[in-house]
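Researcher: Please predict.
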Amino acid sequence: MATQRGAGKHRFDAAVWPLFSRSSAHGTAVAWPILLAAAGFVVLWKRRRLERDAMLHMAFQVDELERQQALATFLAEHNVGWLRRRSRELQEDLAAGIPWFMALEMRGVAQGAYERLAPRMQHLFGKQKEEEAAPSQVMSPLNVEMEAERLFGRMMVLFWFVKVGPILGLMAWLILPTFVDMFDEFGIEMTGSMQLLVWISDMSVSYFAVPIVIFVWWILMFSGIGFVIWLFPAVLQMPVFGWLTGHYYNGAGFVALSRALEEEKNLPEAFDCSGRLVPVGFVAANFRQIAERLRSGEELAAAMQKSGTVAKREMELFTEDVIGVDWARDPVWGLRQLSAWKVERMLARYSLLVQVCVFSVTILTGLVIGFFGLAVISSLARLILALE
């Protein structure tokens, strides 16, 4: 075991960056600038995100051209960097006659589906009056976006697992050789758990390219999936993606529908209006398809089910016997209740997903750390007993 460890260590020092070599002081000098650069990038990215969010929320408060121009001028005069550049670009867009919502999208101020939906709704319908607001504030596009981001913000705990891996790997490369030498010197057999750790360390040293290849393959795989989704957004409605992302984008359509029904009681026109508002291609196509089916005389439930927007069991839930919706007498009220329920259910799904991920990663991280600690403690105990 010691011979194998020595051979693996020799290959490691000869083939891998000095950053990972215990005998190289230059590795530490290289590691610190990399860590500082990474930390600086995260801080700058977070600052840019906060600036964009603040600018978007201020932009959402103005609905008249004069106030929009005044806001862009104020931000350009009292800020620097990204905020000033974007504000000046917004000034130029307004001077060229470009609508406010289009300028926000073009300049990257409004990026997400719900962020782009909010200015579009305000441009078409104006600011929503308090007495006309939906009973649940969750129907506000920006509120839905913030709630979804808050839920996925909890996924930051997953980075603890990313941190634990390199820390345990560094400890293995620094501590395990000492344990191997000590047991070899005293002629004591290592515990099974320690032998497994040494084997894993030797494999990572001898085949250092394997984890790099796996990581690159992982990045390329997800990049390829992202490219396919960008080309064919309807793929998000496939069963493999539907539970994760389909409900999120469909929720934007129901938010738009709920607002459109406040202004337009004619169902085909309301669905058609929602299709024009939603900035997601396949969702917009589904809502326009519902409008066409309704104009052709098809029933509302059948039109929504055939478009894939609502499942059959969901329409069965919203009946007069269960929820108390009388579609024949008051379809507008029923659609608004259905829209609110769909959005809230989407957020509940993501909440469950996040909880499952956090719980699973916490258990996995605890098992890894516990196994490493058990291997070290049991080996030390055996060594102490043997020396006595």
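Model: The CA atoms of residues 140 and 255 lie 7 Å apart.
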